[in-house]
Sequence to fold (220 residues):
Amino acid sequence: MSPRPHRERQIPNLHERILHTAWQQIAAEGAAALSLRAIARQLGITAPAIYRYYPDRDALVTALIVDAFTSFAAWQAAALEGTTPHDHAGRLCALGLAYRAWAVAHPERYQLIFGTPIAGYHAPLEITMPAAQRGLSLLIQVLAQAHAAGKLRPLSPVPLPAVFDAEGVDPQVLFAALTLWCYVHGMVSNEIGRQYPPVLRDAEVFYRHALQTLTAQYLL
Fold:
């Protein structure tokens, strides 16, 4: 008698199905409730079958973080495709709008990579950091181009302390990139987390206006 085939082999693209089901579980119950056994049950496979792809929950969380950052960076890159290299303000606004659009479209992904950490989970930076840097590197690139063109405002009234460790990138560019990211991240996190006060009637209109204001402050 021939060996009984593994049920997971009957599911096309099982690796992608596992990730898709995990995102559904996170959206419904939160990242802290992520369960390999529950995913296996939903897919109709045995728990040992899913362990062949992910030996434990942390391995799956790491894969989801990389998946989220990859998706985020793809949206950022796509936003720049419709801009011209010398339209520094347009490119900066495009990145900012794409940041919010991605977060609104994928709140569970946004919360996983930018929200409350999962108790007991420690991301392996050698795996997650390269993916995380892709989106930020596009912002740094846009600001560096503006700086080279003499269009980036000097933002710090006092000399910058030696807090950056990145060769080949002007500290003013890094200062602008990180402070701008903090502004944008704060606004989007408030919207996704429903933290805005009732006086704000339209978070999207507020965000767009704030983004235009920030762009005018950062660029000449």
Notes: Residues 57-81 form the longest helix (25 residues). The chain has two domains: 1-55, 57-218. Residues 57-218 form a domain with the Tetracycline Repressor; domain 2 fold (CATH 1.10.357.10).
